[in-house]
């Protein structure tokens, strides 16, 4: 049986990075939900930091180099996607956006996506809703309802009466992603489709 | 197998001196380069068509007509003629006129162009790029083959009883190549008509173009024009040579690093790995060009980009000498070896005229 392909994209810049840490936690939690279904799960984590110059080069030349091409193929071939950006200046980081700018706007159509972000303070958490969610809505991906934001203090907090803790949010979001992935039909390899020329001509025939 | 050069006609400052040629100098340099191409034994000169600075060649048939008068043998072509924003009626007339002036040494490559605002500047909508290419060419194709055309389409005024003049030389329309860097629809169009397909592969990795060329070959056969191997394929290339490869790299690097399109992006070495660019000795150019046949099959036309990124005219002429003296003779020999007999050469006016003559004879015979 083909494994389910779960791909996490992390746009963290430091090493070690809390953004990567969150990506890993989300990937593990998603895998936990899917384990037991009998279908193997293959997890790939893509660190955009390692591709930073390839991404810049891809933007100016209009074509991706070999390493970047491999990352793009992994993302576009995913059955489920976890995308995590640090919040910079009230939005996703430029590196994060630049990577997704390199994708054709149809290649993620229908792909389940879990959006997540990190930041120094919880005051930026709605950037997930007003920046990441519309970006993936534009790409016609299916974004799960729970977006996960991890502020610095979340890593040392057990939550409170009104807010669940980070672990709880991770589990909930991962469950939502796993449910969508489970329902995905086994991906068919898209064939190069040609519209026969007669049809192309006929479409232009005036009334 | 035809070998030639294609130019975008950019006016770019020489990064080593900061000096940019005037438009006049650049236009004259293009003419000098074309004449030199013939002198060193190349077969084809093709000019781009652009309608915005820093490019000068907005009027290809004017330039090619001038070059026609100064050359004897060179095939004059374009890379590309904008089938989207030019009126197909004017393309039909301009290139038929050029055919007469050049005694048939003319073909053309159609393309959609690469600058968004050119569409609205010429009253068109970029979102209609492919439909424009399809409809305009369908009309152009008829204008060259039917003396009187009644026509109605979506994008241009209808025609009633229209005759494009002059008629193509000897009644033989110029051979058409369709150029594309990403659209399978254009490969399909070229295959449908049995025209040539030119994959301008100079900026992108080969895998992408192998798919496009493969599609074109397969569909060429589907439409009954021959076997996939007999489809008419052209490829781009980009070279800079010195006898000694280290000298070539040292001299070309500032031009590469500051070039329009890919400058300030990948390193020269990365770009050489990923694309057909070869900077090195003539032997390295020969070796790299020979790999194209392995990747794309036996093909009919190889065009090199030589004169861009601010390279001085003198340097470009030296490149042409190296190409003509050391590279092309070897490539001609190598490409001829092991080339299956059924793989045709690129059609020329002479070959198309002969083919038509043969057809007529057959009809008479029947």
Would you identify the CATH architecture of chain B?
Alpha-Beta Barrel
Q: What name does the CATH topology of chain A carry? A: Rossmann fold
Distance between the termini of chain B: 34 Å
Helix tally of chain B equals: 12
Main β sheet profile of chain B: 10 strands, parallel
Quote the average pLDDT of chain A.
92
Mean pLDDT of chain B: 94
Give the SSE map.
The complex is a heterodimer of chains A (207) and B (366).
Chain A: E1 4-10, H1 18-34, E2 41-47, H2 52-61, H3 66-76, E3 80-88, E4 91-92, H4 94-101, E5 112-119, H5 127-138, E6 142-143, E7 148-151, H6 166-182, H7 197-202
Parallel strand pairs in A: 1-2, 1-3, 3-5, 5-6, 5-7
Antiparallel strand pairs in A: 3-4
Helix pairs in contact in A: 1-6, 2-4
Chain B: E1 2-7, H1 23-39, E2 44-47, H2 60-70, E3 75-78, E4 81-82, H3 88-101, E5 107-111, H4 118-121, H5 129-145, E6 149-151, E7 159-162, E8 175-180, H6 184-193, E9 196-199, H7 206-222, E10 233-241, H8 245-257, H9 268-274, E11 278-280, H10 282-296, E12 301-305, H11 313-336, H12 349-365
Parallel strand pairs in B: 1-2, 1-12, 2-3, 4-5, 5-8, 8-9, 9-10, 10-11, 10-12
Antiparallel strand pairs in B: 6-7
Helix pairs in contact in B: 1-2, 1-11, 2-3, 3-5, 6-7, 10-11
Which properties best describe this structure?
heterodimer, A: 207 residues, alpha/beta, Rossmann fold, globular, B: 366 residues, TIM Barrel, ten-stranded parallel β-sheet, two-stranded antiparallel sheet
Model description:
- The complex is a heterodimer of chains A (207) and B (366).
- Helices cover 39% and strands 19% of the residues of chain A.
- With 207 residues, chain A is an alpha/beta fold.
- Chain A has a single domain, classed as Flavodoxin domain (Rossmann fold, 3-Layer(aba) Sandwich), CATH 3.40.50.360.
- In chain A, strands 1, 2, 3, 4, 5, 6 and 7 form a 7-stranded mixed beta sheet that branches.
- The N and C termini of chain A lie far apart (50 Å).
- In chain B, strands 1, 2, 3, 4, 5, 8, 9, 10, 11 and 12 form a 10-stranded parallel beta sheet that branches. A two-stranded antiparallel sheet of chain B has the order 6-7.
- The two termini of chain B are 34 Å apart.
- In chain B, 47% of the residues are buried.
- The model of chain B has no long low-confidence stretch (mean pLDDT 94).
- The interface between A and B is medium-sized, with 20 and 30 residues.
